[in-house]
């Protein structure tokens, strides 16, 4: 990030106050104010809209001689059983269920399939466990992923008298914290991004009702009302403000994490306090800033730092974006641990009869090539014209596996150069389905989530209803951090082996170079980080916006960041390049 942004983020006492923008007035100016009528809008405006899903809460399943019946939220549906799997779909596509009855008949283990989200446009599967109430009656609680959109405008008068607004959207980072010029003519409001060719929004202002309404893309009219500083949850790091940070040992909550204080694991508290204080001191302003929503640190297997910001908390699952790609090779390793007839050297074409192999290079493509992004397919997420680009893949109406398998070859599989390809990682889902015969959400629940004692998660689905392994898994940050600890512990979590030690070693070894200074394993990024005269090897799962699961074996450290700097790589890469070595590694005494 530019030096000024770094200073603002670190909250340095001298320059911080000069660089941080004023939060602006939260009440309209008096009638004596003259000049630009847009001054009437100065202050904090915010709004949040919940788009569902409508159905959640108690789900009851009944078994009768005439068949199965489901009831939830006033809806009912008939179920069917095929190959021991119970499924039902509610009228109007309001949701569905897929699960199995345990051998003792006491539980039904399954997934709730919620409708397509308006914000993001995909469907999710969420684990549900139902317990027997009496003979042939089971009940459990459905908690789908919330479909929410939040918008804040921080409207300020600039030194030259112009009225500017900073837009903040925690869920998708709409406009990427851009600055807008604000105009008000009568009731008509217009926001025009200060960057040439940028976005613009039109709306209306109702002074009597105290409402500002904007037309926001496909969401239509979006209503905002005035907020005080302590009502703007998500806009600022903490609500209410926490001027001085006090370290607190994390709480053990029965999810498998042992906890300890920083001192108990041989770490220096001062750098960690400085890091968190810098996050707390970061304010929305005219220059985009790092937006860190979660920071978790574990050392020697114990959770020692757990802090949340911008309205997040320990129980809210977070979108891991491409950091969840790393779970695809984890699933492969777990399937091998459980006896699947699969090896890294397995030819992909041998698992998919009918794969076009006119190009002999495709016939040589292996499972390992998919995991290391060296498949040779014409698939490059950084090239909009690439036929395998992730956006192009996701435009396909169905069968993303077949689409990927039919891509032309651009190079020989293997070699030392990786090319970033989400479609290839997702194709590992097809590999797993072909070799295990298991629906991927069920495989993830059985092979990863259950042994890692995960509490809540949501898996996004392809148009065909299977899990998309190219990114977008929602996990609680505490559960995401377990992935790093699993690998640091050689494939074991709390005494239970999940993947072979040899798989951990092979997964985190260098297989290819993605870019200068960045090598790649089985969907693990590999780096070397310098602290003073020491150099530490680090590997990580990383995702857009600042989603990181980091492992530093030499120091026994696992670190997780969650963030909302979507589309702002220059900001969120600093979580690793600056914050990790400067504060966290410096705090960990060898």
Automatic annotation (TrEMBL):
UniProt-recorded Gene Ontology molecular function terms: hydrolase activity
Keyword Signal attached: yes
Annotated spans, Disordered: 377-397
Signal peptide extent: 1-21
Compositionally skewed regions (Polar residues) per UniProt: 385-397
Gene3D superfamilies tied to this protein: DD-peptidase/beta-lactamase superfamily
Keyword DNA repair: no
InterPro entries listed in its UniProt record: Beta-lactam-related, Beta-lactam/transpept-like, Diverse_Enzym_Activities
Keywords, comma-separated and alphabetical: Hydrolase, Signal
Domain Beta-lactamase-related: from-to ranges: 295-561
Name of the featured protein: Class C beta-lactamase-related serine hydrolase
